[in-house]
Amino acid sequence: MAVPEGKYAWTATVGEKGQIVIPKQAREIFGIQPGDTLLILGDIERGLAIPNKGAFSGLFAAAFHEKKGDEQP
Prior knowledge:
Elements: H1 24-30, E1 41-43, E2 47-49, H2 53-63
Antiparallel strand pairs: 1-2
């Protein structure tokens, strides 16, 4: 079976404290560095997703965007 370009799959084990280790190849491909904050989204039917860092900042920009005239002093 051919794997589509840019698609990957890894496994991770959940430790006793609920922590997982992101595989090295995944950290390298997605530029994840020690101390980075990751956004984890969950859906009961579809599972968990960890969007890239760009989505994280985009989400906050959209959530906290102030409309003209709505600025606080």
